[in-house]
Amino acid sequence: MGKAGIARVVGLTALSWVAAAQAQDAGRDFCADRPGKGSPPCVLDAGRFQAELGVADGAWSRGGGVSTDDTAFGAMELRLGLTSTLEGQVSWTAHERIRQKDRTSNEVSMINGVGDLGLALRWSLKNPAGDGVSAALQPFVTAPTGAEGIGGDAWQGGVIVPISLPLNAAWSLALSPELDVRADADGSGRHAGFGGAVGVGRSFGPVALGVELWADRDEDPSGHVTSASFDLTAGWTPASAKDLQLDASAYVGLNSDTPDLEVAVGLAKRF
């Protein structure tokens, strides 16, 4: 091959690199599952990978003569864009500790271990980038890999329907109704669970703030339980790192079946 041929190959290769870089820069806006209890409808571009980490999460309950402290570290979620409208997700918690103390007898019990393994797909039904009116379908299953007293001790699953829509130029509304099939507490069968989150959010430059209400109804035959919380969330995306988010959230329990307070901090990075 002569010098002209080599130059042509080099030139075409350089142009292909430039085109690839421009395509990546023109990709979808960064969108993380964190923070908050709801799920967004946005889907990663095909071939993009995103890691989300719950650095620390603590929940505290005081009631019925018992104090419960539940702390978790290393709650990971890995997301991969499979097609332009479909992504896969894997989630797992590296360590969780539940400490209970009977305030009458001062007796203390402690459980330590890993969490269950979660597997999910998110299929965009409308606007996979999450802009405008956006909706998705998110089926999931949970494998019983967690320690006794921390995990669900059985295969479970369900489906979430994340929805978002702009209210005006500044505010947006998010919904994530959920329907589950859960294991009975006595291990003898399955029952339904349902709930979800509804929230509003607004961005102020690199900072996104949100407020949401979350509720969950567990129809276990041994006793139905309703949990509910009022949630505040904040995320910061540095101007110099558009594929990185740092976040914090606080969840205030609204009844006795919900932790009085839960606080979480974490981050998300797109590759």
Word description of this protein:
- This protein is mainly beta.
- 8% of the residues lie in helices and 57% in strands.
- The chain contains one helix and 14 strands; from the N terminus they run H-E-E-E-E-E-E-E-E-E-E-E-E-E-E.
- Strands 1, 2, 3, 4, 5, 6, 7, 8, 9, 10, 11, 12, 13 and 14 form a 14-stranded antiparallel β-sheet that branches.
- The longest helix is centred in the first third of the chain and has 23 residues.
- It is globular.
List keywords for this structure.
271 residues; mainly beta; 1 helix
Give a quick rundown of the structure.
By secondary structure, the protein is mainly beta. It has one helix at 3-25, and strands at residues 49-63, 66-81, 86-102, 108-113, 117-126, 134-143, 156-160, 163-166, 171-183, 190-204, 207-218, 225-236, 244-253, 261-270. Strands 1, 2, 3, 4, 5, 6, 7, 8, 9, 10, 11, 12, 13 and 14 form a 14-stranded antiparallel sheet that branches.
Which consecutive residue ranges, at least 5 long each, have pLDDT under 50? 3-7, 9-25
* Total number of helices: 1
**What is the radius of gyration?**
22 Å
Write down the secondary-structure element order. Answer: HEEEEEEEEEEEEEE
Q: What proportion of the residues form beta strands (DSSP E)?
A: over 45%
Mean pLDDT: 91
Major sheet: 14 strands, antiparallel
Shape: globular
Q: Count the strands?
A: 14
Name the structural class. Answer: mainly beta
Oligomer designation: single chain
Helix content: under 10%
End-to-end span in angstroms?
37 Å
Question: Topology, pairings included?
Answer:
Layout: H1 3-25, E1 49-63, E2 66-81, E3 86-102, E4 108-113, E5 117-126, E6 134-143, E7 156-160, E8 163-166, E9 171-183, E10 190-204, E11 207-218, E12 225-236, E13 244-253, E14 261-270
Antiparallel strand pairs: 1-2, 1-14, 2-3, 3-4, 3-5, 5-6, 6-7, 6-8, 7-9, 8-9, 9-10, 10-11, 11-12, 12-13, 13-14
